[in-house]
Amino acid sequence: MVGEQARQAGVGTGVDTGVDADLVILGEVLTMDPERLIIPDGAVAVLGEKIVAVGPASEVLTQAKGAAVTGSRDDLVVPGYINGHQHLTGDRLIQSSIPDSLAPGESIFSWVLPVHAVHSPDDDELSATLTLAESLRNGVTSTFEAGTVAHPLRVAAAAEKLGARLTIGTWGWDVKDGPYTGTVDEVIGRQRDLLSRINGPLVSSWVSLVGHDLMSDELAVAASGLARDQDTKLTFHISPSPGDVESYLTRTGVRPLVHLERLGVLGRHCVLAHAVHLDDQEVELILTSGSTVVSCPWAYLRLGQGISREFRHLQIWQGGGRLALGCDSENAGDSVDGLRVAALFTGLAKDCALDPTVFGTHEGLELLTIKGAEALGVSDRVGSIEVGKQADLVVHDRSGVSWPPHGLDPVLQLVWGNDGRSVRDVLVAGRTVVHNGVVVGLDLPSITSEAASASRDLIARSGIRPTSQWPKLS
Ligand SMILES: [Zn+2]
Questions:
Q1: Interval between CA 324 and ligand 1 midpoint (Å)
Q2: What architecture (CATH level 2) is domain 81-375?
Q3: What is the pLDDT of residues 396-421, one digit of tens each?
Q4: Ligand 1 centroid vs 304 CA: distance in angstroms?
Q5: CA of 162 to the centre of ligand 1 (A)
Q6: pTM over the 0.90 mark
Q7: Angle between helix 217-229 and helix 184-197 axes, rounded to 10 deg
Q8: What topology does CATH give the domain 2-79+393-428?
Q9: Which of 45, 53, 202, 313: CA 20 to 30 A from 105?
Q10: Domain-wise residue ranges, the chain
């Protein structure tokens, strides 16, 4: 029956024809395909970078004779998770060091920006290596960088070494002060250069602005035009807290998204990081323009930005809008674990609506996989386990103490009861990047000592003064 369902859903390929495959991965398969088919005792066959068969293990093993076989029926196989907003540099080398009791904006202007301003190319590569390694270890295979990288080629090198799928941005703002600011022409030139230099199948780039009230109208219009011309996306930060709303009302007389819509900036090429503080008109503009919103709920909680009062992201979801999840930065959300974000988003949706029926873990997992991929324009390649798609696969080991007995619904147990810690193996484009819980090619003792030393140097150069809130015995 399962085989029949699989064939109907277009995922099983029948037992009569063989397929060439390098590897067959066994386990219960959450396909996230259009039917959201779950295949207990299933298997996924991989050839090169692509998935070539999905279905009941008995069928796939018959088809893919000669392929190496890994895993067991007790494992859970899911599509690689998608992180739509992640700062790869700046925060990582001072991770979880910015106090969580600062006034709004202070963490950015007194901590993050001074650190970014003195980041060396080596710091950028090291920082990105650490964040991407943690991402992969937690099953996040696709990362979209938030637009604060100074040395993108070094960040691209880090992703290529680890085998992570990455879309990179670079600094884009035309304010007077701050690291890597420039005129509109300079900023657009830098963005154009990035698009031409980093455009591979695994590591690519997009147009990125810092956003907020830190971009002129001229820059916003030019960046939007560049993204449209180059058939890529534009991302920027907007309205995570009420500050942007107040600032736009003062400068333009209207709220941020109303102003940006009037400028012609919004559209399906537009990826808005946050968009927490919206009114009804702005929600409607997001829906009608087809702009994507990336929700990073841990950051809003850590920074006290009001997500539990203004959970418009549920309204966007209910309106059929384009939505993805993000982990943000290591001092705003800190942990780079998509499953934690999916669980939190799900809980906030239920709680803010005072209605547990409005949103569930299945929808949360959709945002982390196929719906997130659709919102970010990559669902033709990733986001689900289907024949012809890229083999971005995550295997959760269910032999650990958190799993037995297996729940009746693996999605409930995965999202509510677990997190990235049970990830054992990860493939990106068919390449094994995490094996037995270890990031392949990462010398952890060596990079640990390198990170400690780079962090000390960075703190000294930037002039920030990290302190412990409680007395420390020295
Ligand atoms: Zn951000």
A1: 14
A2: Alpha-Beta Barrel (3.20)
A3: 999 999 999 998 999 999 999 999 99
A4: 15
A5: 23
A6: yes
A7: 20
A8: Urease, subunit C; domain 1 (2.30.40)
A9: 313
A10: 2-79+393-428, 81-375
